[in-house]
Amino acid sequence: MAKTVEDFNKRRLRSSNITVVVSIALVLFLLGLMGLILINAQKYSDYIKEQLVVNAYFDENYDAKDSVKIAKSEMETFKKIQTLSSVKRATYISREMAAEEARKSMGIESSALFEENIFPSSVEVALKPEFVDPAKIDAAITEIKATPGITDVKNNSTLMVEVYNNLNNILKWILGFTFLFLVLAVVLINNSIRLKIFSKRFIIKTMQLVGAKRRFILKPFIKEAMILGLIGAVLGLGVLFAAWYYFITQIGTPFAQDNDKLIILVVAIFLGGIFITVCSTIIATWRFLRSNVDDLYYS
């Protein structure tokens, strides 16, 4: 009979530990997922901003006799634009390239309908993400336009401002959801630990009644909480990165591969899971240490 009761208690303890580990792993998985989304949301936001280009045009007047001189002058201007503080990257588009692009856009295969040099050469400029900002766009465009050799700069500033505002709103929502998941993580892990400690409330009080000090009683519970938190964090992160790897290989989009931020996220999940688990264990155990024996039947 004693062996049966002991086996039952072991199974119940094992089941309780598994439940706590699964709860911790699930919560940390969701929390880590929101962290990855937040990291990549900023990266992807910058990527989208870099796709919004500004077109800087050279003089339309073109004389074939001065083609060498004009080409040299345009290349010097192009190099100056590349060095501007607001420029992420720049692409030189010659008159021939512009004519070819015009033929493709109009569906014309023959070059006999218009001359190649009727389109001015230009520089396609992608601004740095921080300059795709309503407060900085005009200054960046003015800087490009002031470059010697550039006669006109065209851009869709309304589109840039709209994209900037929409991306910022999305980032705010993601940040809000991340904070919400953090609160839920604390609550769910805390509840799982409280249920586990609740099942041992009589053991805790018995140890205290026979003279065991509170520190002595807390020590094994804290040690167990650290182990459960560590196992839960390993499982949660393992599933998280396996799922994330599958996602990025299937989608193939330019998600962030910032190792420093990923390391910080992993460390934060590990330490956060262990910290929340240990704190919840101490609070739950301390509650029963301070309670009376009669209160254990109504807890």
Question: Can you walk me through this structure?
Answer:
Helix 1 packs across helix 7 (214-251). This protein has 8 helices and 4 strands. The protein is of the alpha+beta class and 299 residues long. Strands 2-3-1-4 form a 4-stranded antiparallel beta sheet. The longest helix is centred in the N-terminal third of the chain and has 49 residues, at 2-50.
Secondary-structure-derived class? alpha+beta
What gross morphology would you assign? Answer: rod-shaped
Percent range for helical residues?
A: 55-70%
Overall radius of gyration:
32 Å
Number of helices: 8
Give the N-to-C terminal Cα separation: 29 Å
Order of the strands making up the biggest sheet: 2-3-1-4
Task: Summarize this entry quickly.
By secondary structure, the chain is an alpha+beta fold. The protein has 8 helices and 4 strands.
Q: Which helices and strands, and how do they pair?
A:
Blueprint: H1 2-50, E1 53-58, H2 67-82, E2 87-93, H3 95-106, E3 122-127, H4 137-145, E4 150-154, H5 157-198, H6 201-209, H7 214-251, H8 259-290
Antiparallel strand pairs: 1-3, 1-4, 2-3
Helix pairs in contact: 1-5, 1-7, 1-8, 5-8, 7-8
